[in-house]
Amino acid sequence: MTAMYRLRIKEVAISKGYNQSSLSRAANISFTTIKKIWRNPHYEINIVTLHKIARALNVPTSELLEDVPDQ
After folding, report:
1. Contact 64/50 with Cβ under 8 angstroms?
2. What's the angle, vertex CA 58, arms to CA 42 and CA 30, rounded to 5?
3. Rounded to 5 degrees, what angle do the CA atoms 23, 55, 9 make?
4. Where on the phi/psi map is residue 70: left (φ > 0), alpha (ψ -120 to 50), or beta?
5. Please, where are the H alpha helices in 1-71?
6. Other Cβ atoms closer than 10 A to 65
């Protein structure tokens, strides 16, 4: 059974004034990866990428994830 989660990266980034390009540069992650995350809140992100984004946004990684109950 896989854990379901939703990424809140787009919402947090926008609230802090980032767009896809600026987040890509700040987190040192490819624009393509950021674009996939932006479009798909259920994108399978690896923990290293999640940490880089959290550091760039100056938030704990837990703020970038939201549990989604099974349906």
Report:
1. yes
2. 50
3. 50
4. beta
5. 9-15, 20-27, 31-39, 47-57
6. 17
Residues 15-30: tens digit of each pLDDT: 999 999 999 999 999 9
Residue type, 2: T
**pTM of this structure:** 0.89
Give residue limits of the domains in the chain. 5-67
How buried is residue 63: exposed, middle or buried, by Cβ count under 10 Å (0-12/13-18/19+)? Answer: middle
CATH class belonging to 5-67: mainly alpha
Tokens of 3: 């854990």
